[in-house]
């Protein structure tokens, strides 16, 4: 059964349990990343299968206390990502929260996708952004374009993916 079948049946967690040796969650100390880790653990994914990517391990002691492995990495540091992604089969790529320059978000996402591919990650789940027709003319068009550019790069990366 493929991931699409599991998604159609509303049972992505079974897919993760069955096919995932290790899943890494980026942005693990942020709101979405930490909730995603909590959800995985609450659904029976073993602590030994979950890895949290963090920039500052001191801010992630709550994850370590749950038995989650911490790995240092930064979206802007390609080598740190390649190292952190070693042995990872599934990657939850949480969107960068760089609020300074929107272009940094796209560069961060592309850096993570390239590093994941180099490290041998089999599947990337990317947290994108819902857009309506005509979004190009809204106040947040640049923000939304960052996601569009990331999605295009991901689709052409050669890595299996899911876009949320």
Automatic annotation (TrEMBL):
It holds the Pfam family NAD_binding_10. Coiled coil: none annotated. It comes from the Bacteria. InterPro entries: NAD(P)-bd_dom (IPR016040), NAD(P)-bd_dom_sf (IPR036291), NmrA-type_oxidoreductase (IPR052718). Residues 27-164 form the NAD(P)-binding domain. This is NAD(P)H-binding. It comes from Cnuella takakiae. The lineage of its organism: Bacteria, Pseudomonadati, Bacteroidota, Chitinophagia, Chitinophagales.
């Amino acid at each position: 059964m493929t991931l699409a079948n599991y998604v159609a049946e509303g049972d992505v967690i079974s897919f993760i349990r069955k096919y995932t040796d290790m899943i890494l969650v980026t942005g693990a100390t942020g709101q979405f990343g930490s909730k995603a880790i909590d959800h995985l653990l609450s659904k029976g994914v073993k602590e030994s299968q979950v890895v949290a990517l963090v920039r500052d391990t001191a801010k992630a002691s709550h994850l370590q206390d749950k038995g989650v492995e911490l790995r240092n990495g930064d979206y802007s540091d390609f080598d740190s990502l390649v190292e952190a992604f070693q042995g990872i089969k599934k990657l939850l790529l949480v969107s960068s929260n760089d609020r300074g320059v929107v272009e940094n978000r796209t560069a961060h996402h592309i850096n993570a996708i390239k590093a994941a591919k180099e490290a041998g990650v089999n599947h990337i789940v990317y947290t994108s952004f819902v857009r309506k027709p005509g979004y190009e003319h809204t106040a947040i068009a640049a923000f939304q374009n960052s996601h569009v550019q990331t999605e295009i790069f991901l689709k052409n990366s050669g890595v299996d993916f899911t876009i949320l």
